[in-house]
Predict the 3D structure of the following.
Amino acid sequence: MAAKKYFTPLQEVYRFVTEAMMAAGTPELYAQNMAEVLVSADRRGHTSHGLNRLGIYVAEVLNGTTDPCTTPTIIQDKGAVALVDGNNGLGPVVGNICMDLAMEKAKQMGVGWIAARGSNHYGMAGWYSMRAADKGFVGITCSNSSPLAVPHRGKKAVLGTNPISVAAPGNNDSFVLDMATTAVSLGKIDIQRAENAKIPAGWAQDFEGKETTNSDTAMIAGCLIPLGRTEETSGYKGTGLALMVEILCGILSGANYGPFIKKLKSTTGPANLGQSFIALDPSAFAPHFEDRLSHLLEVIRTSQPVDPTKPILVAGDPERIHMSQVTCRGGLLYHHGLIRSLLKLAMDLQINPLQCKPLSSC
Amino acid sequence: MAAKKYFTPLQEVYRFVTEAMMAAGTPELYAQNMAEVLVSADRRGHTSHGLNRLGIYVAEVLNGTTDPCTTPTIIQDKGAVALVDGNNGLGPVVGNICMDLAMEKAKQMGVGWIAARGSNHYGMAGWYSMRAADKGFVGITCSNSSPLAVPHRGKKAVLGTNPISVAAPGNNDSFVLDMATTAVSLGKIDIQRAENAKIPAGWAQDFEGKETTNSDTAMIAGCLIPLGRTEETSGYKGTGLALMVEILCGILSGANYGPFIKKLKSTTGPANLGQSFIALDPSAFAPHFEDRLSHLLEVIRTSQPVDPTKPILVAGDPERIHMSQVTCRGGLLYHHGLIRSLLKLAMDLQINPLQCKPLSSC
């Protein structure tokens, strides 16, 4: 049985996140930075990176794991690159500043590459790549993250889901890849568990290193399987991509890395995550980039599908479909469990609860 | 029954490739460029990108599809980036010049990003990333390629295997990711076919869009499956990565792209491939990059495996193992079928045949 859902307008989610972060001690501008990223994630259908994460961010501010007031510092700057220390600030604050700096450099030098350390979970990676693509750049970002993935052949979670996002502008179109380097993120498993559903084989292992289809076991073990799955179907490539991200994040910036990053929800100290932010100016290369990109995307979309009822989509299309649905509906839908936990959060923080209404069916 | 194999020293392969390319009309230096890449691929165990490809490269020179004498031109240069026209030259000639230019820029500006068009198949992508890593940079390269991959949900091959390689230097260690964005490259299927063996499910589709385990069918259809395989295990991510490569190659540089690239072995005209070459100077970021990288790699390698007989490897380890075997053995092993085709090539080009001796068993 599908769990009961609740409807709320986008603006109300934005209001609630901003007030919650402010009540926890975050300056208004930074609270708004956080609200923009979370609302965007839910609007795009990345519900594992939206309002459901607010409780974690608030807790990290309240228990001092994250400093909500600090501003990042540029500690090294050379030509087209810079190293930024996030000073343990909020991920979206660090991320926005870094991608803006990358774009400044790209305007001058064709490309800008900023590595950040001392950062925190920055939400949906696509937020930052799209920030660049919206201004005509190819935007690329990746982040290391709390250990949740086994390396190929491995039993223990010693790598993060280490997402990578690439966004590029077309003509009234865009490419937005935003992917964990595991088969799926933990959030997708959590959604299955919330609905008492099994997970497909290939998503997670149990503590013994065997694939599991039990969503409870998967959540408790926290051992996600790299993209590619088995040896025969090149699971080592998923681990290779996760390590590539780790090298461009933790190793490049001097942040924490691999199993030395604190576990999710742990309050043992700062996460000290590493991230990379790259902006590339297509106009510094061949003219008419947008035309070619739009053409390529259309050619792929209109290529013959195996099953005519399942058309070919390019990265960003599922999110566009979800955003249309949100626009038609006039707002977002949330599960009963999340609404209940947000009600408690509002009481704890003494702010107005999220205004929402139950839907009889979804 | 395993096919009969032949042994030959590295130096002899280098001699043979150089002479074959020169006999086809390639200047000595450029012929040597080609020989270095092919010998390196076979030495590393990437046998799908070694001597077995020589016949194709020679044919492309002889039939005028590739211009073996031309030199690439820088057609746009701005700060840390440049656009290079390969002028339809040999892939390794274009690739070496572009990665060297990227390193020059990285020395000055922390990063260099070169996009090339008018290029040809450049062999093993890892050659170029390692060229940068050997000099202390993080090297990244990717290339588009002849259509051989279906997009996720698709029936037709409209994308290339679009490889990406990332190499980074450690202390007496390195990370070398070199991967097609399909589950496997066509070469791996060809190797199975040469041994009359089936292929694992998840590598290729037949003309109807069904997965096939028949290596003949797979070679004839030429429809490779993206990394991730099914919808449930995120096959769309493999397609997303292939499109990312296409955007950073064909779209960025103004080269051919997607299904508009000529088919493998077609002589209808220049391939006009697009490629990107990126060098990143880790010393422009946080000090002690190599120490951290070596530590990370050791932590992953020594993490607990599911099966103690299958230790965890990082990208570059399988190649290191293969190179040790080559060193012990004193040279390379080739299948009877390849040796036979090279004998014919030597006769056609009127050069000394590859000197090799049969092994009684392998």
About this structure: The CA atoms of residues 63 and 267 of chain A lie 7 Å apart. The first strand of chain A starts at residue 5 and ends at 8. Chain A has two domains: 1-63+331-362, 70-182+227-329.
